[in-house]
Amino acid sequence: MQEYGTPQRILRNPQSEEVKKGCSPLNIPPSPFMRNLGYGTGVNVYRLERSGLTCSPWAVKRASHRIEQLNHDKYATLNNRIVKEAEILRQLQHPNIIGFRTITKDCNGVDALAMECCNTSLGLILERRFEENEGPLPAIQTKKLIEDVAKALDYLHTEARLLHGDIKSYNVLVKGDFEICKLCDFGVSLPLDETGHVDFAKDSKLEYVGTLLWSAPETFKDGKIGSSCDIFSFGLVIYETIALVPPHTFEVGQNEIEDLNNEENCSIASGSNDDTIKQNFPHIEETNNELDESNVSESLENSLSDELTYGTRPPLPGAFDFSDDYNIIIELFYLCTNEIPTDRPNAKEIWQSLQREKETTQSE
């Protein structure tokens, strides 16, 4: 009966060489004909519906035409970042990193990067929770987020040898009800050497950009830039899942926070204890747990500079009563935001600690 079996369907691999080389035909219509998924400073992301029953939608990213009219030099910089991001993405293959589809030019001759399309970003999810006064992101979703992003960072830092360079909630995309989380926006990523650091002496053109609100302390002190910078920024993303606002803005006026979120949006306490920290991260020495930005617009940075302390660990909101489910989340927030880079866990230690906790919970 073998000859009467149902023929197997040949599936097209979206990461195939044909797609990676940008050979698949794609016509990018004018922006009014596409739904806007998000935006950042000078960049827009649209949803492109493709013809055919089996064709999933793509997210299309390109520099804003408005920026081209106002500031051609800035427009050229943004466009170059999109081309650079395409070159990086086509080399990356990981389930927790947004998938590359193709790069082409739109009807106006502007470079347009087509990527896998996700439902929304973590940043937008947290904005809605804040507006509706829903409290911190549920622990089960936060743990899923942390595990997925940590696996992506582990791959970037150890296999791809890349510093993402701009980890924040708006660069974490979410599919479904936290079925899977994916990192996006690699336009300012930097190469890492064998020690996990950026060798600026080797290439004088390299520059750390990042976003001030999420940047690590060493980026402000001419310190050594390396994979631990991503870890610090990741710790501030964990903070966002609890506070529901960008780091260092909890005491800032609500109107200023909304302005900040509009600039940044590009989509795409207690409870811990020393014994648990030592168990999950045995190589990290006991540290003092004292509570010690994509580009934010220059005017907003200046208006908030007196109130904010960039590159530090923000205090957690005191109004929330956390259940035991949040213990490891808060531990990771504290560990990732240690001031000294070597006191921070690496990405592999982060996702492995969550897996150990999961195994322990299931065995009880």
From TrEMBL:
GO terms for molecular function: ATP binding; protein serine/threonine kinase activity. Pfam families: Pkinase (PF00069). Residues 1-24 are annotated as: Disordered. It comes from the Eukaryota. Residues 31-364 form the Protein kinase domain. GO terms for cellular component: cytoplasm. InterPro entries: Kinase-like_dom_sf, Prot_kinase_dom, Ser/Thr_kinase_AS, Ser_Thr_kinase. This is Protein kinase domain-containing protein. It comes from Glossina austeni. The lineage of its organism: Eukaryota, Metazoa, Ecdysozoa, Arthropoda, Hexapoda.
